[in-house]
Amino acid sequence: STYPESGEPMDTIFMSLHDTPPIPVCQNFMVPKKEISMFPDMGKWKRSQAYADYMGFILTLNEGVKGKKLTCEYKVSETIEKLLVLLGTLDRWIDETPPEDQPSRFGNKAYRTWYAKLDQEAEGLVAAVIPEDKAAAAPEIAVYLKEAVGNSTRIDYGTGHEAAFAIFLCCLCKIGALRVDDQLAIIFKVFDRYLVVMRKLQKTYRMEPAGSQGVWGLDDFQFLPFIWGSSQFVDHPTLEPKHFVDEKVVNENHHDYMFLECIKFINEMKTGPFAEHSNQLWNISAVPTWSKVNQGLIRMYKAECLEKFPVIQHFKFGSLISIQPVKP
């Protein structure tokens, strides 16, 4: 089956797990590098296998979480457990690296110390997560983990960094470390834990939003949890889009819904009327159904993130996330 939204087959990414054998061990892994250096290169990105795989991954997961709560029952595999350990390590390093006293409020330099540790350890962290016969993939996949936590020069974080984490997870699917039946755990356990760590980074080191559109953007830092989070609400018997601006609803239901966790964090970080500090989300609360919200957010994500040169110029491509055009 394909998505009406994009025409991509639903299981492109997990294909290697049903119909064809997984990626052969002898595959030539490579350290990913930038390929989109000028605006005209954007066409190359949109026609690439990377774009098809990335959108396929996002939409497959979007389908998978439809109508399900964070607290529902699902399988937790060994790889998922190992990823949670990895994220727990990143979290612990924040505790071990307190912010420095400095004159400027934003962009605390202690973040660079934290990041240097990840830079040093990333390959080992990834090697501990993937099967031994795929160890050769660790240097390639580790690049996406390092790209997923913000920029250490600018001390900022944005949707491009978030996308790198989704690509990191997509790579783990492509080498067969994560499987089709891990779908719910990928979002509800791993991605949710990733968000907790990112919020802690953003808060602790007062990170700047990367390429933020200010009040006109959806959120200073994230986008994907709004897509997947709105899918969780599809066909909900009582909660409608208009309810997420009600703080009581948020406080009572955020444990079950990723979308509300995002709203709760915004409410903690921002002051003043919601309609003023989060205008786009306020507008979205007027959309009548969650499935309309979900479809609209997917279109917005493509337009505002995946088709924007300032975001895509930082993307890196290798053997798993390939810049080669989709095979006809």
From TrEMBL:
InterPro entries: Phstyr_phstse_ac, PTPA_C_lid, PTPA_sf. The gene is ptpa. One of its GO terms (biological process) is mitotic spindle organization. Transmembrane segments: none annotated. Belongs to the PTPA-type PPIase family. Its main location: cytoplasm. Coiled coil: none annotated. It holds the Pfam family PTPA. It is found in: Cytoplasm; Nucleus. One of its GO terms (cellular component) is cytoplasm. PPIases accelerate the folding of proteins. It catalyzes the cis-trans isomerization of proline imidic peptide bonds in oligopeptides. Acts as a regulatory subunit for serine/threonine-protein phosphatase 2A (PP2A). Modulates PP2A activity or substrate specificity, probably by inducing a conformational change in the catalytic subunit, a proposed direct target of the PPIase. Can reactivate inactive phosphatase PP2A-phosphatase methylesterase complexes (PP2A(i)) in presence of ATP and Mg(2+). GO terms for molecular function: ATP binding; metal ion binding; peptidyl-prolyl cis-trans isomerase activity; protein tyrosine phosphatase activator activity. Keywords: Acetylation, ATP-binding, Cytoplasm, Isomerase, Magnesium, Metal-binding, Nucleotide-binding, Nucleus, Rotamase. This is Serine/threonine-protein phosphatase 2A activator. It catalyses: [protein]-peptidylproline (omega=180) = [protein]-peptidylproline (omega=0). Its EC number is 5.2.1.8.
